């Protein structure tokens, strides 16, 4: 591996495509490029020559220049080494090599096709039986799998396979169903909840789950408060009493008609007390739950889940899931998967190369993604974004229909609310001259602002910046990592944040979540006065048993925030999932992912 690194370092100093063409260079220059002495440079050149990677002809005598000839390309070397590692079962070594030594554009098409042949469904022979395994790539990695701190859709999706909640919300029937708790009672005043737990439910490390774990999980969330992503969900809990090993009583400070729905949210999943308490720092990397899959591996490049044979519910059909992190450069390369089973894109037009001319063997599910992209203005930081005129001016130059027309792809419709099904057909209002007038009226002097984004939002963010520049607003885009963008300190640095919010189908709970979540950009960018106003309104909404009245109250809050342009709705997106005929039980959840608990594979005939 080290000699390969030296070869690639040396090859990087020459132009593309000069293989088999002698290049004039001195031994001293080679030593400089390899950061070593001339003696070590000679040793390295000899080793590379013995591998038939290059030939070295030292110049002898005055005026005779040494010549270096590359016999193989960097791309070929990376591909061969990665294939060799993979053939020996060293998948971690394979993916580390791809990240450390290769860029997407530098890898041969044949190698990319070979790499993607590793993904999809496999029937693996293990101890004289076959196991169904699914391996697939992602291009941005997990941040945390701790339910208390989870922020992103992909993390939430995997948490739903590793952990369980006391009860479950069925989005199809809109009914709360038993899960870890098989029965519960609610007092007439709505302040006391008693839950009766299933017996014999095991955590992945083999210990039985008890009422003490339930108490610890909820009290941990309450004590974390704003330091937990969804700490607000435990705000209404006054006290928790363990009645016995399998029953527990929860007392609330005030009636909360959505409390059961909150208990069904994955942020309130049940964790094992001693494991989480004693390993808080690493629990997000290697968590233990009671869910249908147990986490077997989670390093910087590979996440591996295995079906939990002792699961109290219905065991998954899949035996193993393996997720690989690939360099983002490779996301532009269309995979050609002979065995691909599930392939999801935020796009309307593409499917795997293997699907071409095989339409009868492939199926597609296209759906709108719940949620929308938002642009928030930091009203806790000095700057022109504090002024209503400024925020209105930005809104007036964002022609959402033109944005969709020019950028295309997964952009489906202009957003005027959080969910696509709530949209009116009216066209968004744009007026560049009125926007300029508003800026002049407020005395805007062309101050530069910083917009924080994730890398996958760049194209949209650049388009927004161009529209703002046209009316004299300079905006600098700053790309921050997903881990950084969870931190309040990062959120508070930004003048604006552009991002996409994924929501689930329980509308009133998830609108409240957006307004209450501690590191929600909408919430974190409200000033204190507005945040206190929102909290007071939501407290009243949570005590109202009339669902229509709750929805109306939430609409009033959002309308008030929209009137002052606290944040802007931008676009809705769609997603297409393509899958092969051999995969069965495909359902796409609100987060846009396939439910791994339900899929299974029909053998080829």
UniProtKB/TrEMBL annotation:
<dbReference type="GO" id="GO:0003677">
    <property type="term" value="F:DNA binding"/>
</dbReference>
<dbReference type="GO" id="GO:1904680">
    <property type="term" value="F:peptide transmembrane transporter activity"/>
</dbReference>
<feature type="domain" description="Solute-binding protein family 5">
    <location>
        <begin position="176"/>
        <end position="482"/>
    </location>
</feature>
<dbReference type="InterPro" id="IPR025370">
    <property type="entry name" value="SgrR_HTH_N"/>
</dbReference>
<dbReference type="InterPro" id="IPR039424">
    <property type="entry name" value="SBP_5"/>
</dbReference>
<dbReference type="Pfam" id="PF12793">
    <property type="entry name" value="SgrR_N"/>
</dbReference>
<dbReference type="InterPro" id="IPR000914">
    <property type="entry name" value="SBP_5_dom"/>
</dbReference>
<dbReference type="Pfam" id="PF00496">
    <property type="entry name" value="SBP_bac_5"/>
</dbReference>
<keyword id="KW-0238">DNA-binding</keyword>
<dbReference type="GO" id="GO:0015833">
    <property type="term" value="P:peptide transport"/>
</dbReference>
<feature type="domain" description="Transcriptional regulator SgrR N-terminal HTH">
    <location>
        <begin position="9"/>
        <end position="100"/>
    </location>
</feature>
<protein>
    <submittedName>
        <fullName>ABC transporter substrate-binding protein</fullName>
    </submittedName>
</protein>
């Amino acid at each position: 591996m080290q000699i390969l690194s030296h070869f690639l370092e040396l090859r990087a100093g020459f132009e593309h495509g000069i293989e088999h063409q002698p290049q004039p260079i001195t031994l001293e220059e080679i030593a400089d490029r390899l950061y070593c002495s001339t003696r070590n440079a000679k040793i390295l050149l000899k080793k590379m020559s013995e591998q038939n990677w290059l030939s070295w002809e030292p110049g002898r005598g005055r005026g005779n220049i040494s010549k270096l000839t590359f016999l193989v390309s960097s791309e070929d070397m990376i591909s061969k080494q990665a294939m060799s590692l993979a053939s020996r079962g060293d998948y971690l070594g394979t993916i580390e090599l791809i990240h450390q030594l290769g860029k997407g554009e530098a890898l041969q098409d044949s190698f990319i096709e070979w790499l993607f042949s590793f993904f999809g469904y496999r029937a693996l022979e293990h101890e004289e039986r076959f196991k169904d395994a699914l391996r697939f790539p992602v291009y941005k990695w997990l941040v945390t799998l701790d339910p208390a701190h989870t922020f992103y859709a992909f993390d939430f999706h995997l948490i739903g396979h590793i952990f369980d909640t006391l009860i479950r919300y069925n989005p199809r029937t809109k009914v709360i169903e038993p899960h870890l708790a098989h029965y519960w009672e609610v007092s007439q005043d709505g302040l006391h909840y008693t839950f009766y737990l299933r017996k014999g439910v095991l955590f992945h490390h083999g210990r039985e789950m008890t009422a003490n774990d339930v108490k610890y999980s909820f009290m941990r969330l309450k004590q974390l408060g704003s330091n937990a992503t969804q700490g607000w969900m435990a705000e209404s809990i006054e006290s928790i009493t363990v009645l016995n090993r399998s029953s527990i009583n929860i007392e609330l400070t005030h009636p909360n008609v959505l409390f059961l729905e909150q208990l069904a949210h994955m942020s309130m999943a049940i964790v094992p007390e001693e494991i989480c308490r004693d390993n808080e720092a690493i629990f997000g990397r290697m968590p233990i739950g009671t869910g249908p899959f147990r986490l077997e591996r989670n390093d910087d490049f590979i996440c591996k889940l295995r079906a939990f044979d002792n699961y109290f519910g219905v065991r998954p059909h899949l035996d193993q899931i393996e997720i690989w992190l690939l360099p983002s450069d490779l996301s532009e390369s269309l995979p050609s998967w002979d065995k691909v089973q599930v392939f999801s894109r935020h796009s309307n037009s593409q499917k795997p190369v293997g699907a071409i001319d095989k339409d009868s063997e492939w199926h597609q599910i296209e759906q709108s993604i719940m949620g929308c992209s938002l642009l928030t203005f930091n009203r806790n930081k000095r700057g022109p974004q504090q002024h209503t005129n400024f925020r209105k001016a930005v809104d007036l130059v964002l022609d959402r229909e033109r944005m969709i027309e020019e950028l295309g792809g997964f952009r489906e419709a202009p957003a005027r609310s959080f969910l696509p099904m709530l949209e009116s057909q009216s066209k968004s209002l744009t007026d560049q001259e009125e926007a300029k007038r508003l800026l002049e009226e407020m005395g805007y002097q062309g101050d530069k602002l910083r917009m924080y984004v994730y890398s996958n939002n760049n194209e949209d963010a650049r388009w927004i910046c161009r529209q703002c520049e046209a009316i004299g607003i300079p905006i600098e885009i700053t790309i921050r990592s997903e881990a950084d963008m969870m931190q309040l300190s990062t959120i508070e640095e930004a003048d604006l944040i552009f991002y996409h919010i994924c929501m689930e189908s329980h509308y009133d709970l998830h609108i409240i979540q957006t307004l209450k979540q501690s590191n929600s950009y909408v919430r974190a960018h409200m000033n204190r006065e507005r945040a206190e106003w929102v909290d007071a309104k939501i407290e009243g909404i949570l005590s109202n048993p009339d669902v229509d009245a709750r929805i109306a109250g939430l609409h009033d809050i959002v309308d008030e925030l929209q009137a002052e342009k606290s944040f802007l709705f931008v676009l809705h997106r769609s997603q297409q999932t393509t899958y092969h005929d051999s995969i069965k039980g495909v359902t796409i959840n609100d987060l846009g992912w396939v439910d791994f608990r339900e899929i299974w594979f029909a053998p080829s005939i």
